[in-house]
């Protein structure tokens, strides 16, 4: 795998480590994969605080996805930049058509741990090359998960992806985490992805910038570190985590945006 693909081991380790503690997220598949893969993380990438952050982020995406599945019972799910994430198992919606999408080398690795079925499919694709969208079911509703991927795409590539989704589906509900421009610049000096060799990331300051067509709307910002999840930490950990990873300071670096896209 190249450096960008290797970043998948950071959230995998976070979810596995926190799942073992029995807090925030239950992810036995992450524990299994991490134990077998044995990839070496260095420096900030294996920080206790980052593991909590990765687990909370995943839990927020999980809860959001569950709510959208309830609201839109016919929608298919596109998990773009899935890495080794086991959200399809954590949410357990076997009746839904679900695509886990990532680079060919990542999908090849996933197939050691996940099996396709009638509704669950793994798709090899580069998110920056939107041609893969044309092969999906046309005219359906889609729930799109973009966790930990926007920073490796340019704003132009994200805009093109939004337009392609708009052309393909009748309605799209999309959740995407992203760096701010300041966060992207700061990441060159202090970022756990540097510890696996990834250097180039992008940032977004104005979520409304992707509203280039009628029907593409930024709807709201979500909290990546809800207080009820922070409360699962010890008292000391809660204090430090709130100071460093939650609130106004954290939002200067990292945000979570929801979009609705209609034809």
Automatic annotation (TrEMBL):
Concerning SUPFAM superfamilies, the annotation shows: S-adenosyl-L-methionine-dependent methyltransferases
The organism's superkingdom is given as: Bacteria
Question: Which terms under GO biological process does the entry name?
Answer: methylation
User: What InterPro entries does its record include?
Assistant: Ppm1/Ppm2/Tcmp, SAM-dependent_MTases_sf, TcmP-like
Q: In which organism is this protein found?
A: Kineothrix sedimenti
Q: What is its EC number?
A: 2.1.1.-
Q: What is this protein called?
A: Class I SAM-dependent methyltransferase
Keywords attached to this entry: Methyltransferase, Transferase
Pfam families xref list: LCM
Q: Keyword Glycoprotein: yes or no? A: no
What Gene3D superfamilies would the database entry show?
Vaccinia Virus protein VP39
